[in-house]
Amino acid sequence: MKMEEMVIISVDDHITEPPTVFDNQLSGDDYATAPKLKVAPDGANYWEYQGKRMRNVALNSVTGRVREEYGFEPTNLDQLRKGCWDVHARIGDMNVNGVAASLNFPSVAGIDGGLFIKAEDKKQALVHMRAYNDWHIDEWCGAYPGRFIPLGILPLWDMDETAKEIRRLADKGCFAITMSENPTVGGMPGIHTGYYEPLFKAAADCETAICLHIGTGNVSPHCSPESPVEANITTMPMAVAFGAADWMNLEALQRYPDLKICFSESGIGWIPYLLERADYSHEQHHVWTHSRQYLKGLKPSDVFRRQFYSCFIDDAYGLRNLDLIGEDKVMYEVDYPHSDAPWPNAPEVLWKSAQFLTDSQIDKITHLNAMKAYKFPMFDHIAKEQLTVGALRQQAKEAGVDTTLISTGGAAPLAEGEEPRPVTSKDVIEMYTKHAAAAYEAA
Q1: How confident is the model over 258-274, as pLDDT tens digits?
Q2: Helix (H, G, I), strand (E, B) or coil at 49
Q3: What is the arrangement of strands in the sheet containing 45-49, beginning at the earlier edge strand?
Q4: Secondary structure of residue 160 in the 3-state scheme
Q5: Which of 42, 246, 303, 413 has most Cβ atoms within 10 angstroms of its Cβ?
Q6: How far apart (Å, rounded) are the C-alpha atoms in residues 23 and 439?
C-alpha cells in the first residue's frame, strides 16, 4: 500500500458552531430561549444561554494559524479558518488533509453536553438539546452523506429521556453518543451507582457506542506553576488511563458484553502497561476487595480488548505494540481544529508511524474499525476509490482549497532586547481564569 491509497477516518474532530445552529430547528419561544451567539464590545464572540455567557467560541480553534499564534486566541469566528464552523469549507479542509470522514464533537454544547446538563431550566434544555442533535445530524452531517459520523449528546439528568434519545438517534442513523468519562466531576452520579443502567441498556440494544472524550472528567493535573506548559500537554493523553481503569471495572460490562466504549483523543501507547497492571492488581487484590465484575473468569485486559476502542494522532510506540492492544480496536484521529491537529499533513504523519504495519492492519486502523464501531456505512454513499488520500487531495486541488496560514497579529510585541519566555502552567491557568471571567463581563 502507498500513502495515497489509504482511506482515513478521523474519529475525533470538533465543531466551532455557527450562529445558525437553531435557526431551522426551532420556532417561537423555543427558538427565542435557545443559545445565541453574540458579540462583545471588544469584538469577541460569546454564547448566551439561560442567563449565562460563554466567551470561548473560538478557544483552541487554531488549525491553519501560524504556530506562533496558537493559544487562547482567536476569539471571533472571522479569525478562524472557515472550515471550523462552515460545513462546506470543512469538506475542503478534510479533502486537502486526505480525510474521508470525520466524527465531530460539540463545542458550545460541551463535549459531553454539559451546557444543557448544567442548565437550570431542564424542560427548555431538553428541547434545545434535541434540536442541537437534529442540527448536527440533519444539517451538519446530512449536508454530505458518507463524510461525517453523527454523534449525539444526552439529557443525562433524566435516564428515561436519555434512553428515549439514544433510540431516537439510532432511528436517525446516529450510533455514537458522548458523555463524561467521570460524571461525578460535574456533580452527576458515578458510573457504578446503577443510575446509568437505562443508558447502558439502550446503547447495547441499539449497538450505539459511548464516546468518552479526554478532559470531560479526569483532567491531567498541572505540573509546578513555573513548568513549561508542554509538560502538561505531554501527559494529557495518559490522564485517560484513570477513566479507562474506572470503566474497565464497570460491572455493567458483564451484563452488556457487546456495549462499545470509545476513548476519544486518548493515544494508545500507555494501554499495554495499563492492561498488564490491571490484570496484576485484580489477581493480587480481588480476594480482599470483593470485586464482582470479573466473577466470570475474565481478566480486566479481556474486557478491555472485547469492548473498548482507542484512537491516536501520532503514536508510533503504540503501533509497534499493536499486538498488546488489539488491532481491531484502534482508530485514527486528526483533532481538527485543535492545536495538536496535523492539518494538512495527517497522511504524512500517520504514514511515518504506520508504514511497517500490514495493509490489513492499516485498513483496520484508518477506517474499518471506525466503520464497525459507529455502524457507519461509508462506502454505501461514496465509492472507496473516491475517498483515498490521493483522490481527496486531487479534489481539493481542483477546488483550489487555500492552505495559506492565518495571522491576526498574535501576542503583544516584545520590547527591544527582550527575550520571549516559556508559557508556563501558571500562565495557562490564568488564561482560563481570564476567559471565564470575561464571559460574565461581556454584556
Answers
A1: 999 999 999 999 999 99
A2: strand
A3: 36-39, 45-49, 52-54
A4: helix
A5: 303
A6: 23
Half-sphere exposure of 379 (CA within 13 A, CB side): 11
Q: Do 56 and 73 contact (CB within 8 A), yes or no? A: no
The Cα–Cα gap between 83 and 120 comes to 33
Q: How many structural domains compose the chain?
A: 1
Cell digits of residue 63 = 488549525
100 within 8 A of 377, measured Cβ to Cβ = no
Beta-carbon-side half-sphere exposure of residue 360 (alpha carbons within 13 Å): 3
User: What is the extent of the structural domain holding 61?
Assistant: 3-411+419-441
Task: Give per-residue pLDDT as tens, 344-359.
Answer: 999 999 999 998 899 9
- 77 contacts 85 by C-beta, under 8 angstroms: yes
Domain CATH code at residue 433 = 3.20.20.140
Q: How far apart are CA 241 and CA 263, in angstroms?
A: 10
Separation CA 392–CA 404 (nearest Å): 19
Give this prediction's pTM: 0.94
Question: Residue 405 corresponds to which cell in the numbers above?
Answer: 496560514
> Which ranges of 103-183 would DSSP assign to H, the alpha helix?
114-117, 122-134, 159-171
Cα gap 386→218, rounded to integer Å: 40
User: Which residue has cell 446503547?
Assistant: 203
